[in-house]
Amino acid sequence: MRLDSHWLASAIGDLGAEHDIYDDDVICDYPQSAERIHGRTNVQAPQSHHPGKPSGFDVKRIQGEGHLWITEYAIAYEGQSACTLSIMELRDCEVVHETRYFASFEAPDWRSQWVQQ
């Protein structure tokens, strides 16, 4: 599956292979920071200029069919881990739109009697 190759390339830092899946005119949205990136070159640039390489990358699951795929993964930078969700819309086997959500969350002590860690 093409998504498997994409996420494997992401995990090992192969930026060329990681971005092969994107259409030249892809749009990538980061709702939490209200950023929108236009174009494959611009999507790749922030990652190639990131001051730190991921110290951990773990795909939890990939779910979807046809033109809509969702990947849930965890990524760590400089000791900080974030649960991440990528929603990819494809056309002709290339991503034309991606939305990425990042979350960090500390479980509150008050509910520890009902949950597992």
Description:
The protein is α+β, with helices and mostly antiparallel strands. The chain has one domain: Nuclear Transport Factor 2, Chain: A. Helix content is 21%, strand content 47%. It is built from three helices and six strands. Strands 2-1-6-5-4-3 form a six-stranded mixed sheet, covered by helices on one side. 11% of the residues are buried. The mean pLDDT is 88.
List keywords for this structure.
117 residues; alpha+beta; Nuclear Transport Factor 2, Chain: A; 21% helix
Give the CA-based shape. Answer: globular
Radius of gyration: 15 Å
**Remind me, CATH topology?**
Nuclear Transport Factor 2, Chain: A
| Lateral strand order in the biggest sheet | 2-1-6-5-4-3
Tell me the major beta sheet.
6 strands, mixed
How many distinct folded domains? Answer: 1
Helix content: 10-25%
Distance between the termini: 32 Å
Tell me the total number of β-strands. Answer: 6
SS strand fraction? over 45%
Which residues form runs of ≥5 with pLDDT under 50? none
H/E element sequence: HHEEHEEEE
Summary of the model, kept short:
With 117 residues, the chain is an alpha+beta fold. The protein has helices at 2-12, 15-18, 40-48, and strands at residues 22-30, 35-38, 56-65, 68-77, 80-91, 94-103. The relative contact order is 0.18.
